[in-house]
Amino acid sequence: MLYETAQQFSQAVRNELENNLVPFWLERSVDPEYGGFIGQMSNDGTIDPRAPKGLILNARVLWTFSALYRFNEDNQYLDMARRAYDYLETYFWDSQHGGAFWQVDFQGRPLDDKKKIYGQAFYIYALAEYYQAFGSDPAIQLARQLYDLIETNSRDQLYGGYIEVCNRDWSVAEDLRLSEKDMDEKKSMNNHLHLLEAYTNLYRIWPDTQLRERLTELFDIFDWRITDQASGHLNHFFDDTWQPKSANYTFGHDIEASWLLCEAAEVLDDSNITSRAQRLALRLARVTLAEALDNDGGLCYEGQAGKVTDPNREWWPQAESVVGFLNAYELSSDRSFLEAALKAWDFIEKYFVERKYGEWFWRIDRTGCPDPTEPKISQWKGPYHNVRTCLETIRRLQQIIPGGSELI
Q1: Tell me: the pLDDT tens digits for 171-197?
Q2: Which of the listed CATH numbers 2.30.42.60, 1.50.10.10, 1.10.3720.10, 3.40.50.300 matches domain 52-240?
Q3: For the segment 311-368, what is each residue's pLDDT rounded down to a tens digit?
Q4: How distant, in Å, are the alpha carbons of 156, 225, 240, 408 from that of 159?
Q5: What is the pLDDT of residues 30-67, one digit of tens each?
Q6: Residue range 68-89: mean pLDDT, rounded
Q7: What's the N-to-C CA distance of the chain in angstroms?
């Protein structure tokens, strides 16, 4: 349903968080036999006990339960965050060369020892959140080590930005793809988006002068290099000189970047960057609203040349759209963005929330049918997008709309 007041909307989001998402991850994600968290669970809850364990999932679990503890100081969240922290430090951290492995096997032995910068970024993001929740000095020291490794080995001193993948010893890898579906190019939007996200969170706890310069550079890269000035979308892949090598775009990244750029501007606290961030955010939100949001509130996945090329809806763009549209409403007071956020959440409740087995479906087609073949838990399917959306939505509704105010 489309909620009529901010209080109703906020309570519905809180109910989803506390009665579905959090219990699912608390009760069903822990690996009691081999430690840490399970690597793979099918949609119906079947666990593959020997599935590999990925850096992304484990870092996102660490971030999620650290953020949840900051929201509500529940000792269950503390235990989960510590479990994730300890597993990452024990099994993913490379004691020889520094940094975190991309993947370990079910017993914690290195399976893919590459240093993918996207993964290092999420580790920093999570460690910074862990420090904010628990004041752990080792966490901030580890985050600073990762930052130094990235800056020393991945940063392009000539053209700016960061290469995608390093080998275990931090030499540049030959295969630069993050995953099989990605292009083998030197630089990507996705990598830089999550470095921006990570450096933003790190700057909150460590306002270092060089870090400020690097975060500002990342912001400039989005404004001047990654954003397509003609279409308003974010280009995906680039060569080392920042020439675009792809023509498609994902609406989920567009709307996610719209509010993450504002987060970066907030911590940098520079009036010029703030105004640029607001301009970028509103343009990204408007083009996403115009091209990707269906009348039923579902967000289409991918487009090219102004047309939708993949109309399927996936859990993470759908989640990010709620936050992105609320952020755009906060910036502009344009009620079309508020209505879009309401519709996007309504679609989540109607189609993504899995009433039988818990959590959310991965993908919904344009007719509203879920894809039961996709996992509930995997290297790429974790609690970060949907839990963060719930936390951000509750926080933003409290800030921008008085509790009893009418929405529609």
Answers
A1: 999 877 766 665 667 899 999 999 999
A2: 1.50.10.10
A3: 999 999 999 999 999 999 999 999 999 999 999 999 999 999 999 999 999 999 999 9
A4: 6, 11, 7, 48
A5: 999 999 999 999 999 999 999 999 999 999 999 999 99
A6: 99
A7: 12
Radius of gyration of the chain (CA): 20
> Within its chain, how far is the Cα of 201 from the centroid?
13
pLDDT, the chain, mean: 96
H/E element, 23: helix 22-28
Neighbours of 398 (CB within 10 A): 13
φ, ψ for residue 117, nearest 5 deg:
-65, -35
Three-state secondary structure call for residue 220: helix
CATH of region 1-29+247-408, choose from 3.30.70.1150, 3.30.70.20, 2.60.120.20, 1.50.10.10: 1.50.10.10
Nearest to 280 by CA among 341, 331, 336, 217: 331
229 pLDDT higher than 90: yes
Q: How far apart are CA 266 and CA 217, in angstroms?
A: 15
Does the CA dihedral 183-187-193-198 come out positive or negative? positive
Domain residue limits, the chain: 1-29+247-408, 52-240
Transcribe 298-363 into DSSP letters: PBP-EEETTEEEE--EEHHHHHHHHHHHHHHHHHH--HHHHHHHHHHHHHIIIIIB-TTTSSB-SE
With 0.70 as the threshold, say if the pTM is over it: yes
80 within 8 A of 134, measured Cβ to Cβ: no
